[in-house]
Amino acid sequence: MPPAKRQAAAPLEPPSGWTVDAVLKNVKKLRTTMGDQAAGKQTLADVGVSGVTKEVIAMDRHLVTRAIERIAMDAALTIMRGEGFSYTMPVRTASNMLYVPELDRLVLKDKMLERVFANASAARKTAITTRVLQLVLELCGRGIHVTKRDLFYTDVKLFKQQTESDDVLDDAACMIGCTRSSLNVVASEKGIVVGRIIFEDDGDTIDCTKMGVGGKAIPPSIDRVTSIRGDAQFILLIEKDAAFMRLAEDRFYNTYPCVIMTGKGQPDVATRLFLNKVRATLNIPVLGLFDADPYGLKILSVYMKGSKNMSYDAINLTTPDIKWLGVRPSDLDKYQIPKQCRLEMTEHDIKEGKQLLTEEFIKSNPEWHKELELMVRSKVKAEIQALSSFGFQYLSKEYLPRKLKEGDWI
Amino acid sequence: MPPAKRQAAAPLEPPSGWTVDAVLKNVKKLRTTMGDQAAGKQTLADVGVSGVTKEVIAMDRHLVTRAIERIAMDAALTIMRGEGFSYTMPVRTASNMLYVPELDRLVLKDKMLERVFANASAARKTAITTRVLQLVLELCGRGIHVTKRDLFYTDVKLFKQQTESDDVLDDAACMIGCTRSSLNVVASEKGIVVGRIIFEDDGDTIDCTKMGVGGKAIPPSIDRVTSIRGDAQFILLIEKDAAFMRLAEDRFYNTYPCVIMTGKGQPDVATRLFLNKVRATLNIPVLGLFDADPYGLKILSVYMKGSKNMSYDAINLTTPDIKWLGVRPSDLDKYQIPKQCRLEMTEHDIKEGKQLLTEEFIKSNPEWHKELELMVRSKVKAEIQALSSFGFQYLSKEYLPRKLKEGDWI
Questions:
Q1: Residue A190 distance to chain B (closest CA, Å)
Q2: Residue B231 CB neighbours (<10 A)
Q3: A162-176 helix and A61-80 helix, angle to the nearest 10 degrees
Q4: B112–chain A Cβ distance below 8 A for any pair
Q5: Rounded to whole angstroms, how far apart are CA atoms A172 and B181?
Q6: Within 10 Å of residue A236's Cβ, how many Cβ atoms?
Q7: Nearest Cα residue to A108 out of A124, A121, A123, A93
Q8: Does residue B53 surpass a pLDDT of 70?
Q9: What phi, psi does A126 have (nearest 5°)?
Q10: How far are the Cα atoms of B119, B125, B175 from residue B80, in angstroms, in the given order?
């Protein structure tokens, strides 16, 4: 093997005649209009909604420990009063969910359920709840994190199926009033990040401008990510890792100060928590680069609105104000994407597209609605990679600078 | 949110009465017995096999450029001689493959095929080959890397299906005599690494002891990974990320100097290249921690033997001498894994297990064969997570130190 040398690509220059400042002018303007609408900043109290369960908050392990001890104490007291052994917790079914337009997210309403040990149908679930609370107490006491799978395996005899311990984990978070990640039970990690951001991960300083082309794996335990800082002007959120790799290798962030991240398709919880935290801490806009197809929009909506199943934790998991930078259906003509790089939508695609047209987050934004209508009408979709038909570096050298300069997001 | 504090777990201590040196004694001994059998060091010439195509080698972009220019020049000369336009390349089908026991890998034999433009059935394929060579020339000229998907999109009209450009990429590598990653076409990245290793990634120094709990994403372009160094005594190769996260959070590598990596299930090409390179550079043993089921063994075999499809690049993609540390079928009784953490094998599992018993890499190793026989006979499997039944940190505090101390690998 010949001695490996650094084979660096030429530094990225803005398109000829443009300066970096000119390209970034609209991004800076967008930032000033963001004001206090920052993601994760507005709470139910801010918009004056009442009669709903309080939203969960991130707690440190000492607060979680105290909350579990209080729950156990309450249970012990009712037993001693001769009232039997039971837990009280918020109902997490769709009937107890409320969409709050001001926050653009689902929250739990105030219906509670009692899980009574003496009730034959609830005895096992009550036992599982007790065991899960005990395990979480142990995790918090030792300050370690485990996966849901690990948790399941600590008592297979009782839990039987992983879905049972998973389900009760969400119950436990709602009972305590904390986020699921506060329970020290984490999701596996999938996302990666590079760019003008520095943070501490469990005491190690991570400088994401010095992570090579591979990027930094987004840490699974968000509570260990602290001291987020950096001079990034915006976050570029990418659907898939191919476009991420292109921008990372071109060191796009060196020329245009930004944070680049991807959840590699359907994002995991860790990536969504990280995006939310970076967005809220640096208070910079998030620009989304997704495939121009229904699937791309669906993934975008997961970042923005989250899943119903974890709606109780939406405040930490969702980033409602993402701007749709591209690739938008109208881009196909505007950027003259060659016919052969456009793909015909399948029946299933068209059905998905029509379904999306009825969803609140599309309907509430006329510009998004118009784009999606165009897609469904033209029956044509395209991937981010379609831009490669103009050359491998068209994305970083032409498309993105032009998009940014024109403030071409909706 | 309360101010985030570092919630470090207590530093990992060896089991009581043991020293770190005592735990590592067998690993050090293993290292001395490795000698020159290092993975990727032995070539066909070393073992005296002839009559086969030369194996491909890693080339820098200047060598690849020269090779492509030579291929184009040859084609031009045959055209000018009036012999028509054609390419000659090694046949990549199973009939042209040879298993070399000394190397424990598949290599291509010397059968060649001619792709003739004037031949109606090969005209399109010849055109595709020409286009792919031209695109690779462009990539090498600019020193940038793209994914297979990017490459496909540069000429959808010609390639039609991505499988067509992918397939010709492998042809191109074989024609040039270089690895596929030398073509600057990379796989997407999936693997992560932490531990006592430092390397350069595109000029950035990456210290994997300072990557927090999230670890470093394994870079997609192996040729940019240089200056691998560190005081690791062994590589701990983990099947899935749950166990990886446990060891990363416990900073297992601070107590026992090692590199910890995972491909998160079925490994991608980048992870396999990285493992091979770290293994060959540091010349330290690789110990595998996999689920005790046929699927775990199959993934282990991908690391060791690779896939038939890319057998021409086996020397860089495979790491033949991985030791099977655990979780082995015999561990279930030895470590008294509770009955309820053992899972019954399905019909499909048993069939897979029986199939594996007939494979060369199992048959050639009596100890592996014995373990697999035990699995198929007992019809019982177990995941790494089954160890959590003894406590969340049993893996890092008890199981692994004991395994290492006893030299309990096969």
A1: 8
A2: 11
A3: 90
A4: no
A5: 48
A6: 25
A7: A93
A8: no
A9: -65, -40
A10: 18, 21, 21
First to last CA, chain A: 49
What CATH number corresponds to the domain at position A102?
1.10.10.10
- Say how many CB pairs under 8 Å bridge A and B: 239
Check whether B40 has a pLDDT greater than 50.
no
In this structure, the answer to whether residues B119 and B200 fall within a common structural domain is no
Q: Which two tokens mark B293?
A: 């089921």
- Look-up: residue for tokens 């109902």? A91
Chain A positions in Cβ-Cβ contact with residue B4 (cut-off 8 Å)? 60, 223-226
CA distance B194 to B230: 12
Q: Which SS3 state, helix, strand or coil, does residue B323 take?
A: strand
Closest CA to B393 of B184, B269, B243, B203: B243
Q: In B, residues 370-399, which contact A (CB 8 Å cutoff)?
A: 383, 385-389, 391-393
Same domain, B301 and B173: no
The β-bridge partners of A52 are A109
Q: Which helix (H) or strand (E) holds B186?
A: strand B185-186
Pair A161, A212 in one domain: no
Q: What percent of chain B has pLDDT over 70?
A: 93
B193 and B165 within one domain: no
What single-letter DSSP state applies at residue B11? Answer: P
Query: Are B214 and A192 within 8 A, CB to CB?
Result: no
Beta-carbon contacts of A210 under 8 Å, excluding residues fewer than 6 positions away, are: B204, B205, B206
What are B177-208's pLDDT values in tens digits? 898 889 999 876 789 999 999 999 988 999 99
Residue B69 has pLDDT above 80, yes or no: yes
Q: Are residues B141 and B78 in the same domain?
A: yes
Task: Report the catalytic residues of A.
Answer: 153
| For residue B10, pLDDT beyond 70 | no
What ipTM was predicted for this assembly? 0.75
Identify whether the C-beta of residue B215 lies closer than 8 Å to the C-beta of residue B239: no
Tokens 């019909």 map to which residue? B347
Yes or no, beta carbons of A249 and B144 under 8 Å apart: yes
Whether residue B394 lies in the annotated active site: no
Structural domain including A267 reads 20-41+187-405
- Residue-wise pLDDT for B251-296, tens only, equals 999 999 999 999 998 898 899 999 999 999 999 999 999 999 999 9
Q: Is A15 within the bounds of a domain?
A: no
Q: Which residues pair with A289 in a beta bridge?
A: A238, A326
Task: With beta carbons less than 8 A apart as the criterion, state whether A179 and A57 touch.
Answer: yes
What was the pLDDT predicted at A7?
44
The DSSP call for residue B57 is: B
Burial B247-283 (b: 16+ CB within 10 A, else e): bbbbbbbebbbbbbbbbbeebbbbbbbbbbbbbbbbe
Q: 10 Å Cβ neighbour count for B159? A: 23
In total, how many domains does chain A have? 2
CA distance A303 to A272: 6
Q: Report strand pairing: B286-289 vs B234-238.
A: parallel
Q: Which residue has the tokens 């096969």?
A: B410
Count Cβ neighbours within 10 Å for each residue of A311-347 and write b for 16 or more, e otherwise: bbbbbbbbbbebbbbbbbbbbbeebebeeebbbebee
Q: Who's near B93: CB < 8 A, 6+ residues apart?
A: none
Q: Is-contact A112 A151, C-beta < 8 A? A: no
* Below-50 pLDDT ranges, chain A: 1-8, 36-40
Assess whether B174 and B196 both reside in one domain: no
